[in-house]
Amino acid sequence: MGEKLRILVWNEGVHEANNEPAHIGEIYPDGIHGAIAAGLRSFYPESEITTAVLADDQHGLSEEVLAETDVLLWWGHIAHDQVGDAVVDRVQRHVLGGMGLIVLHSGHFAKIFTRLLGTSCSLAWRNDGERELVWTVKPSHPIAEGVDSPIVIPEQEMYGELFDIPDPDDLIFISSFAGGEVFRSGVTFTRGKGRIFYFSPGDQEYPVYHHPQIQRVLANGVRWAAQPGLDRSAPAVTNPARDWFAER
Amino acid sequence: MGEKLRILVWNEGVHEANNEPAHIGEIYPDGIHGAIAAGLRSFYPESEITTAVLADDQHGLSEEVLAETDVLLWWGHIAHDQVGDAVVDRVQRHVLGGMGLIVLHSGHFAKIFTRLLGTSCSLAWRNDGERELVWTVKPSHPIAEGVDSPIVIPEQEMYGELFDIPDPDDLIFISSFAGGEVFRSGVTFTRGKGRIFYFSPGDQEYPVYHHPQIQRVLANGVRWAAQPGLDRSAPAVTNPARDWFAER
Amino acid sequence: MGEKLRILVWNEGVHEANNEPAHIGEIYPDGIHGAIAAGLRSFYPESEITTAVLADDQHGLSEEVLAETDVLLWWGHIAHDQVGDAVVDRVQRHVLGGMGLIVLHSGHFAKIFTRLLGTSCSLAWRNDGERELVWTVKPSHPIAEGVDSPIVIPEQEMYGELFDIPDPDDLIFISSFAGGEVFRSGVTFTRGKGRIFYFSPGDQEYPVYHHPQIQRVLANGVRWAAQPGLDRSAPAVTNPARDWFAER
Amino acid sequence: MGEKLRILVWNEGVHEANNEPAHIGEIYPDGIHGAIAAGLRSFYPESEITTAVLADDQHGLSEEVLAETDVLLWWGHIAHDQVGDAVVDRVQRHVLGGMGLIVLHSGHFAKIFTRLLGTSCSLAWRNDGERELVWTVKPSHPIAEGVDSPIVIPEQEMYGELFDIPDPDDLIFISSFAGGEVFRSGVTFTRGKGRIFYFSPGDQEYPVYHHPQIQRVLANGVRWAAQPGLDRSAPAVTNPARDWFAER
């Protein structure tokens, strides 16, 4: 896998800063972003993989940084409201212009996700350490390539339906939990020229991002979402003259 | 609900004829088709609801009968190969022309279903009397109207992914089973002018078709699939002259 | 068609107030909203059909009014930015809760539309009085029922691709224009429990809303989008205990 | 583009054998298949690109050949009924197992296409040498990468709606013709593990397959449809024991 992609893993980083839960430093000594980045590096050793957190200047998401990013991964949970609206505007514009976006777990309530989807993105949840099974339902999709069905996650927070999202472009994974709930855990959307992948497994209390199969899904997601050769411009209104295309 | 629809419930009727399983006469004294028809009658007392079985002449699916049918429900299991190809051709033609079709449970392997879908329609199964939970994931769909989420079915055969179907037009229900498997248990398709609904709960060993919520889903499905005012003709090739529409 | 629906036709009403274009009073003596409402009344004589404009208190879109509305139609063009954000929040909440929404023509840039879709909703346009042909591509959809294919509109503003919208749930109509451009002119979306229909024909310069076939499409759209029996509440986050559904 | 793919271009080859139309030898001296293959070679010089025709033994589509094919392109027109059913069965099995399939122009009526789609695949047509414009409506799709919108084809047979196909997974291109008709000219489907792309431009009377932009679309389609690393097996029914996945 010799791709040279520019990947940015964003994490609010507040759980880590607050050492909450108390064992987060054990399971994620380099932060959730550090674990995700490490997993991606094992797949894309030639890619440029960086991280950023909420506390960084402009949350580490300046115009310059986004312009040089092929795929942005987003993890947030308890500080969604601290993300500045100007930054959300900027990320949205880059997604519409073709930047890939991968939203993870509790990022379902991130401003950028609800902004792009237009729904509440609400769901049912229960933190009871239940076994999650992640089943592939679209094996032809690039994100399912080489992925076990089911992926077995011994302990995880339950996320259940109704997941209030628009109909996805593709439904790739459905999870079940020990308690019987189900969840559309891997779904894709397009907005403008950008490709978006939401994947729910992964939490601050459980070491899910060290699971080799979860790492493979994220690596597949990055490759699918990346459009490195694309001119980065969002669709815009035009007022063409009649027969403007005649010279072609 | 004062609709006057013409509804035909088809069942191969072989389990009933063979008294297999031995308790089928207790749970379905009027056959599976009889139970389904009774459920529909409680919703549509003014509709014309009839039944037919494999042993009937032309399987009860003559040209005349189909021409007078708004929605056909299909239950089959162990005799799919005994359904004549000419009858399958005829049913397909009527679906393309606008007749509604509701395929139930083991009907996933019916000739008419694989013919219309183009895939193997294979799945995983296990008959272990597991609890099935049917979760609504598209609450805005007419088939989900007034349906509990989840529907709780105490005992049922497990059907699990991978369910080899094309991407449905709408995914309305996802089931989980006690063993952890999941299944896209309520899905719609369109083929030609016809509307198709597949719904998996319902089996010869369990009294699922007496469940009030399952009856409601089938009643909703019938209303959604019916197009009583439509001219019954399948799309066909045309060779129009330029500007043929100019008179409009 | 004996439906008793509660239908609200909203128009910014600025073109009419400014008498711009000068002939608007001739083609729409009761305003664009008046023409749309009149068309709907011919289909639903027993329904309650009202109108509201931007200049009304709260733009005529108070909590009380929306709570009593099954379907809201939206026409806007040159005053999108004058629609208050609090009203947009309110309309969005009602759509997520199940109110139907039909967005018309230049409403593609309305705040409520871009809010619900998450994209720029930009397009190409040219006001050259070109013939528009509206072709049905999903004849099984309720909105296509009884609609000619193509609908011929002698003169209309051109709207062309790229129309920057998410993939619709259903693509029902595609238009072509005399200049050769194409446009996805009839598309549906769901957001939360609400059904949304966008339909592009209709403009302040051309008498399109008097066209019988256009009136039929809008009438079909209203019936499709309405869910009069639905509890009006947007999906919300829940935290259920394990086995909460066991009593069912 | 260093991909090493195994690409097979199939053409019935009857127009060429019959020298009908009389100028086919001028516009396609190496046959339609030869022109398509040449276009692909310019994009994938390291790939193995072969051709086959109806007159070949087993139509050149033996089990051994298909097992070594990543993507099959299919052009047919006047001899669909001469394609043996056993060959169609075999091609379908390989598609369900993951072989890519690209169906071209009049191949809309090929047995393999109607088999996989389940509809009539009928359409409107008129051979009047009309200008076709091919507009991109999903710019984020890999098949649209680097493609002009519109592609201008000076003369082409008209294909118009209603195109009786199931809702595609993705609608990428919509064409308009000088006479005003529109057509969903670039659409994708998945069946089993296989990816299918239908693309309508290209005819025995017009030199469309020499158009650089058409060649680019086909090259993009091949790359999108190919899954060279995939185990070639169609989905099949399974009967797993409870907790079969527990060892993972």
Describe this structure in words.
- Four copies of one chain form a homotetramer.
- The first copy, chain A, has 248 residues and is an alpha/beta fold.
- Chain A has a domain at 6-118 and 185-225: Rossmann fold (3-Layer(aba) Sandwich), CATH 3.40.50.
- Helix content of chain A is 24%, strand content 28%.
- Chain A is built from seven helices and nine strands.
- Chain A has helices at residues 14-18, 24-27, 31-43, 63-67, 85-96, 111-117, 212-225, and strands at residues 6-11, 48-53, 71-75, 100-104, 124-136, 151-160, 170-177, 182-191, 194-199.
- Chain A has a nine-stranded mixed β-sheet.
- In chain A, strand 8 (182-191) and strand 9 form a beta hairpin.
- In chain A, helix 3 packs across helix 7 (212-225) and helix 5 (85-96) crosses helix 6 (111-117).
- The radius of gyration of chain A is 18 Å and the shape is globular.
- The first copy, chain A, starts with 5 loop residues before the first strand and ends in a 23-residue tail after the last helix.
- The model of chain A has no long low-confidence stretch (mean pLDDT 97).
- The A-D interface holds A 98, 133, 138-140, 145-146, 148, 150-152, 169-170, 190, 192-195, 227, 229-230, 235, 245-246, 248 and D 98, 133, 138-140, 145-146, 148, 150-152, 169-170, 190, 192-195, 227, 229-230, 235, 245-246, 248.
- Chains A, B, C, D: Residues 6-225 form the ThuA-like domain.
- Chains A, B, C, D: InterPro entries: Class_I_gatase-like, ThuA-like, Trehalose_catabolism_ThuA_prok.
- Chains A, B, C, D: This is Trehalose utilization protein.
